[in-house]
C-alpha cells in the first residue's frame, strides 16, 4: 500500500464491515440462538442450524433473522474500519513502508492481533446489545418486562440494572477472541492471496478485475473459516456471559467452557459451528472483496512483486 494512504484504509474497512453485516447477520442470529438454547442444562431446543433458521422464519419472518442488526451495523462499520485501518497501517510500519512480496508473519500477526485488541472495546458493547436482542425472539424465555424494543432501550436498561460496566460484560473474552481471531484471519488471507496470485501468474493468467474478485472470495472466505474454527469456543462463552440473567454467572470463559465440556463434550464448545462456518465464507469473502475494491477505487495500491 502507498505510505500516505492514511484515512483511506479506514474508509475501505468501513465498506467491508457493511458488506459483512448484510451478508452474514442472518447466520449470526442462528448461531447466537443455538449457543443460548443448546448449551443450557435443561436440554436442546434446536436440532441444527437449519431447524433453528426455519423456526425463526416461521415465528418471526425475515425480520427475525435480522434482529439486532441495527447495533451490529453500527458496531461492525466502526469495528471493521478500525481493524482494517489499524492492520494496514501497523503492517506497513513493521514492514518498513513496503506492502508487497511474500507475506511476513512477524508483521502480519502482531498487526492483526493489535487491531483485534483495539476494536474489542467497541465490539463488546455492540455485540452485547446485538446478542440480547437476538435471544429475545419467540422461543425466548425472557420475561416480557425484560424485553427490549430496540438497541437503545437495551443499552439504557443494561446501564440502569447493571451499571456502566454492564455494557462491557464479556470484555476480556471479546478481547481474546478478536486478538486471536484476527491474527488467524489475516494470516490465512495473506498467504492464500499470495499463493493464488502466484499460481495464476505461473499459469500465465493476466490479472483482471474478475480474477482479483475470485482471489478475494477464496482468500477472504478461507480466512473466515480458519478464524472461526479457532475462536468459536471463546465466542460460545462470550454469548453466555453477555446474555445470562444470572448475576452470579462467572465471567471466566475457560470455566464456562470447562462446564460445557463436562456436560456436552467438544461438540458443546463448538455449538453453532454449522451456521458459523456457513456464514464465515460468504460474509468474509464479501468483506475482503469490498475492501480490496474500495482500496483500489481510493487509490491504495498493493503489489505482489
UniProtKB/TrEMBL annotation:
| Record InterPro entries | MCP_dom_sf, MCP_transmembrane, Mitochondrial_Carrier
What subcellular compartments does it reside in?
Answer: Mitochondrion inner membrane
Cellular compartments per GO CC: mitochondrial inner membrane
* Biological process according to GO: mitochondrial L-ornithine transmembrane transport
Q: Which organism is it from?
A: Capsicum baccatum (Peruvian pepper)
Q: Does the keyword Transmembrane helix apply?
A: yes
- Which GO molecular function entries does the Swiss-Prot or TrEMBL record give? L-ornithine transmembrane transporter activity
Q: How does it sit in the membrane?
A: Multi-pass membrane protein
Q: Which residue intervals correspond to the Solcar repeats? A: 4-93, 103-195, 211-297
Q: Which family does it belong to?
A: Belongs to the mitochondrial carrier (TC 2.A.29) family.
What keywords are annotated for this sequence in UniProt?
A: Membrane, Mitochondrion, Mitochondrion inner membrane, Repeat, Transmembrane, Transmembrane helix, Transport
The record's section on SUPFAM superfamilies has: Mitochondrial carrier
Where, by residue number, does the polypeptide cross the bilayer? 65-87, 107-124
What is this protein's name?
Mitochondrial arginine transporter BAC1
Question: Source organism's superkingdom?
Answer: Eukaryota
The keyword Mitochondrion is assigned to this record: yes
